[in-house]
Amino acid sequence: MMAQQQRRWSLLAICYFLFGCLWWGIVHHTGWIHALDRFGIAVIAGHPNPALTKFMVFITSCGNTITVVALTTIATLFLLYMHQTTWASFLLLNVGVFSYLGTVIKKIVQRPRPSVHHLVYAGGFSFPSGHSTGAILFYGALIIIILHSVQNKHWRRGLITLACFMIFLIDISRVYVHVHYPSDVLGGFFYGLGSLMLSEIIYQNLHLLNPFTPSKNA
C-alpha cells in the first residue's frame, strides 16, 4: 500500500513538474517549445487525407464538452443506481472540478490558438487543451473505477485499452484539426493526469477507494 502511494505521489510530482515546464516555456516563448510544436505538427498533421480528416473530426467531437458532460452524466447515474456514491463523487470531482480549474489556467495563460485554418470550431484560448484535460480526467477516472470493479481480467484489459485509445486519439485529433499546438495537448495531459493522481491520493487517504461492491438491492 505504501509503495502504491509513493508511486502515485511520484507520478503526480512528475506530471505537475512537466506541466509547469510547458507553462513556463509557453509564457517565455522559448525555442524548445516552438521546436516541439513544429515537430509534433509535422508528424501528426503533415500528411492529411480526406478519410483521416473525417475520422479525426469525429474523434475530436467525442471530446467536446457536451459529449463529455453527457457521458459523465450517464456514468454517474449508473454508479448512483448501483449505490456507488463514492465512485460517482470521484468521477464528478475529476471531470467537474479539475476540468474547470483547467479553464481557469487557460484564462491566466491566454495563449492564442494556431493561426491556421481550423477544421472544426474552437473558441477561447489554447493552453492547456480542454479536450486533452477532459479526456484524461474522464477516461482516466473510468480506468481507476474499472481497476476496482471489473473482476474478469480480459474485460478489464479490454476496457482499459479502449479508454487509453480514446485518450490518445482525442489528444492527437486536436493537433490534426489545427486547433491546438502539441504543447497544448501535452499540457492538458500532464495537468489532467497529475490531477487524477491527486484525487486518487485524497480518496485513498480517506479510505474511500474500496472495491466496487454492487448493492443487493440494486
UniProtKB/TrEMBL annotation:
**Top-level lineage group:** Bacteria
Question: What CDD domains does the record point to?
Answer: PAP2_like_2
All copies of the Phosphatidic acid phosphatase type 2/haloperoxidase domain together span 90-200
Q: Which UniProt keywords apply?
A: Membrane, Transmembrane, Transmembrane helix
Keyword Lyase assigned to the entry: answer is no
UniProt keyword annotation of Translocase present: no
List residues traversing the bilayer: 12-35, 55-80, 87-105, 125-147, 159-179, 185-203
One family from Pfam that matches here is PAP2
- Name under which the protein is recorded: Phosphatidic acid phosphatase type 2/haloperoxidase domain-containing protein
Which species does this protein come from? Answer: Lactobacillus selangorensis
